[in-house]
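WARN retry 2 of 3 for item q-0093 after timeout on previous attempt; input resubmitted unchanged.
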Amino acid sequence: MSVSIILCTYNDSHFLRTAIPSCLQQDVVNREIILVDDCSSKPIEPDVMDLIRGNGIQFVRHTTNQGLSASRNTGISMARNEWVIPLDADDWFYPNTVKQLWDAKDGADIITGNCTDGGVYAPAISRVLLSPEVFKRENPCICSSLFNKDIWRRAGGYMVRKGPHYEDWNFWAKCFKVGGRFKYMPISVYNHTSRPDSMLRILHPNRDMFVRIATEGVF
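OK item q-0093 returned
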């Protein structure tokens, strides 16, 4: 199995002390880790840089801040493997969950599961069959899902736009529209770190507007 893990950071590299070891502990043959720094204004701490260099992690830094979508697209475009999985710097994988997603592929393009954050969150795909109506109502997949680069290419990558938005929601919707095959595994893939300044908290007060942005032009 060959998988590229795409780590993205912006002014939160201290979280990489946990995120990077969780990537290194994945039982993946031909594992590749690519770290994209989206032009952070804060320097990466020396011990974190040692962790990056000492484990052969590819490191790229944007010269301007472009947003999470652009960072993921950068990392995926660099990936030498045809299967990728994103992870935000402030999150971390449970042991060997990437392998469990890989082993469950069975012809699917996107394999997803649950995440934890003070409890287990199971996305919409765990309860309902996917349809345009589901996408207009709720995000059906967790962000750290395993997918192949072919579906990423066919979907046109992550949507890059100025300001916060539901980049994962939009990406999964585009994958569905181009015929992407989804599969759900009832495992906790990663832990999401709640933060007062998190993107989800910023988006929530205007959720309906951002959902329209995520799905308009797709369905």
